[in-house]
Structure formats: structure tokens, C-alpha cells
Automatic annotation (TrEMBL):
Alphabetical list of InterPro entries matching this protein: At1g61320/At1g61330-like, F-box_dom, LRR_At1g61320_AtMIF1, LRR_dom_sf
SUPFAM superfamilies, A to Z: RNI-like
Limits of the F-box domain: 3-31
Entry protein name: FBD domain-containing protein
Domain of life: Eukaryota
Residue intervals of the At1g61320/AtMIF1 LRR domain: 149-271
Organism field: Gossypium mustelinum (Cotton)
Pfam families cross-referenced by the UniProt entry: F-box, LRR_At1g61320_AtMIF1
Gene3D superfamilies documented for this protein: Ribonuclease Inhibitor (3.80.10.10)
Coiled-coil blocks: none
Amino acid sequence: MGILSFLPPEEAVLKTSFLSHRWKQLWESLPVSGFNFRVPLPVCCRGGHVKNLKDLRDGKYMTVEDMKRECSKFVEWVNNVMISHQGSTIDELRVRFYLDKDSQRYIDKWIEIAMRKQVKKLELDFPSLLHRPSNAYYPFPKECFPGIEFLTSLCLVNVGVSDEAMEFVLSNCPMLETLHLKNSPLLIHPKVSCSSLRLKHLNISHSESIQTIEISAPNLVSFEYHKLRKVPFHIWYAPKLTELDYSNWLDFNLAYLVSQLYNYLPQLVTLRWIYQGFPNLPVFVT
């Protein structure tokens, strides 16, 4: 029991699969705080081939077919761990690999299992080395899995989150305090609006299809927004907002930013903006 307790749960299932059935049953009943499914990822791409960290030294490349086989192995690994563990709760689930819509039914199942076990923190990151059209991203489900109400932190990177999916999450996760959405091509007009929302930290980054953002969040403390070009964002109600982190690289306009934040400048403790070059600062007449 002591040996198994020191192994990460996602690794323990591999180790015990080679041991007796009794050992496997013992692992399945162990309490775990969370699962972190990550493996070393390829770091560069050339001509439809990808190169991983190990092969950088040897100059070898993996083909796209090789990557598909690696994806199949990864999916099988996660399936084995998620399905075989019999614990009643999972505090945290993190999955990072080159997955997309082709793996939707498996990813949906992982989320369902985690929700059923009252997961509190969920993080999905599905990057791609090759160009991926927006309809090929894994679409985050708009489904009320039992246990979704226990979620306190949701981080979705390189995941297809639509406006409707975002609204669904905010409406069905009363305990949610942190929401991080990065590189979601399906976000167009995201809205954060709920009078009873606990949301404290909001990060919307590098989702280049966004046209407007609207925020009304009574408990929001920090808002982080990064995009190549500026879009109208309206903070209608955020009495506790004290931190803002903002950047748009191609057409930064400080006067525009100030106009958007005029009512909240007195209460901001931290204001960070990133700009490529030095902007022309506006002249304010008192």
C-alpha cells in the first residue's frame, strides 16, 4: 500500500497492470487527489512531419501517421486509468496532448467520469502543430453532467468553446471561481452575466474570432484579456475588480482602454498592459 501511495495515480495503473489481480484491485480503491495526464510533446513541425524532444538530437522526424498512433496510445492510457479507478472523488483532472474532435467521445467520457466524482479543477489543453480548422477543435460539451455543480476552476486551452457552451458553464457551475479560456476559435460574443456568480478570476486570451465581450460579475477580482486586435469589451458591473491585465498587439490605443475602464480606474490596484513598441500617450485635460 505504501509503495502505491507514492506513485502518481496515472502511473500506478501502468505499474500494477503487470502485477497480480489483487494488486490491481488495491490500486483501484486508493484515494487520489487528482490525475495529470501529460507526456513530452513534439516541439516543431516541418512539411507534415513533427519532431519531438528526444529526436532533436538525432535529427529524426515523426510522420503524421506516427502522431496518430501516439494519440491512440494516449487515449487508451487515459481510458484505462479513468475507467478502472473506483474512488468516489477526484479533486483535479488535467489532460494535455494533441487531441481534437476525432477523440470527442473519449474526452466526453473522461469529463463525465470526473464530474460524477465531483471534480473541482478541470484543465484541458489540446494543442496542434499543424493548421487546425475551427470545426476540427474538440467542442466542449453543453451537457449537464451530474456533479458539474462542484466545479471551482475550469481551464480550457485549444478547445472549441462556443458562446453557448460558456453561458452553459456559467449557468450550471455555481461554485466556479476561476475561468480561463485560451485560443478558442468558436468564441464570438462571450458574456459573463449572473448576479449570484462566484467568479473571481476571468482570463480570455488569444481567441481571435471574438467581436465583443460583456461582463457583469459581482465578485470578479481579476480580468485578463489578450488578443492581437482590440475589440469592444464592456464591464457593466464589477464592484470588486482590482486587477486588469490587457494586451492587443496590433492596434493598441491607451485612450480607448481608459474609456472602457473609466468607471473602474479608481478601484484598480494593478493595471498591466502589453504593447509592441511604445504607444502615443493621450493628453488628458483637467
